[in-house]
Amino acid sequence: MVPPAEVIKRQANEAFKAGDYQTATALYSHSMSLDVDNPLHVLNRSMSNLKLTNWKEAEIDATLALTLSKKNEPNLQKALFRRSRARKAQGDLAGARADLKGYVAHGGSQKVADTEALTDPLAVDVKPSPIPTPSTADQAGYKIKDTVFMGKGAFATRNFHRGDRILAEKPMISLPEPSDFKEGYQAILSAVERLSPKDLLRFLSLHNGYSAKGGNIFIEIYRTNVLPDGLCDDASRFNHSCLPNARYSFHGDSGRYRIFAFTDIAIGQEIRVSYLSSRNVYGSTRDERRVRILAKLNFTCLCDACSLEGVTLKASDDRRREMLVLWERMVKHDPRFHGQRVINDAVQAIRLLREEGYAADADDFATDAAALCDAL
Ligand SMILES: C[S@@+](CC[C@H](N)C(=O)[O-])C[C@H]1O[C@@H](n2cnc3c(N)ncnc32)[C@H](O)[C@@H]1O
């Protein structure tokens, strides 16, 4: 298995070769953080910072590379050479000259040093990085930004009506649910290794909910953000709520994840989906949901329903307990004997869903009641 830091550095080098220095610099920052004692990451980042004319950052990177390189002569030469260019560009001519001297002392070419001393760093070929294309989010009517307690989340930038489609996004990684973990593990690593440098950077910027436990960063990020059949850039940013105002589903024909509004959603409101299947949400008490979410997803739910206390929490738990009983009774009803009772149960369940502020699944109860009555 190639260590994640190596995979990331390799893709950073690809971005660098393609002239995408922004992506390269950001990827080197990630690879450095995973392999802190290896000077190559920061040495390479000093070069991409030079390309971006980030002189101060390039100087700092080269200085760190010098410290980490110890007695590695080729690295020392490169670091001193790069730092001399960064220093010269900042007007520190004495510092730049001293670095070039050091470069020669560590085996660098005197002729190259003499030429460098005369070169104007601003005249060095600096290719502009490609202009970023607007993300799906900018066009769709939602914005990914910081929440108070849940990291980032998606917020409406226009009013949505119930039933509106909020997002349709092709997954960055599409993988069927693995049948066994070992096989899944390898498939995830291979899929991450195949990502383009830009997608790898997007992947690495996703939330990691498992980092405190160590392990492989690719697997951790994948586990935190995976939807039933893959992982998306934007869809994976929508937070969970036990009172969701939207839902996601995979649309096989277009190969896209789609998110639809369950309720009207006003500008500025956070759009939240449910990570659990419906009955596990509307049919469970706060404590049951917390246990399930912690075990399956490794976080403690802080949604509005889970943040209730005292009598309002008890009322919510009671409603959800009753909804589960109604649901279980409905599926067990024999329509030949219990036609009216089925309808009463469906009406009561829908009333409880409304009281709870749970916008989904009323149609499930209604459809089941209709199907049972039809069988009478
Ligand atoms: C798929 S990510 C969602 C986007 C994430 N908030 C981010 O910053 O990118 C899942 C993570 O978001 C946070 N999260 C989502 N819903 C939450 C909730 N209801 N309560 C607390 N944290 C939540 C948890 O840290 C979880 O591991």
Q: Helix count?
A: 16
Strand order of the largest sheet: 1-2-8
* Ligand set: S-adenosylmethionine
Q: DSSP strand (E) fraction?
A: 5-15%
The tally of beta strands, per DSSP, is 8
Describe the 3D structure.
It is built from 16 helices and eight strands. It has helices spanning about 5-15, 20-35, 40-50, 55-70, 75-90, 95-105, 110-120, 135-140, 180-195, 195-205, 215-225, 280, 285-295, 310-330, 335-355, 360-375, and strands at about 140-145, 150-155, 165-170, 175, 230, 245-250, 255-260, 270. The chain is mainly alpha-helical and about 375 residues long. α6 packs antiparallel against α7 (about 110-120). The chain has three domains: about 35-125, Tetratricopeptide repeat domain (Serine Threonine Protein Phosphatase 5, Tetratricopeptide repeat), CATH 1.25.40; about 135-270, SET domain (Beta-clip-like); about 285-375, no CATH class. The radius of gyration is 28 Å and the shape is elongated. The longest helix has 23 residues, at about 310-330. The structure holds S-adenosylmethionine.
Please sum up the structure shown.
The protein is mainly alpha-helical and 376 residues long. It is 55% helix and 9% strand. The radius of gyration is 28 Å and the shape is elongated.
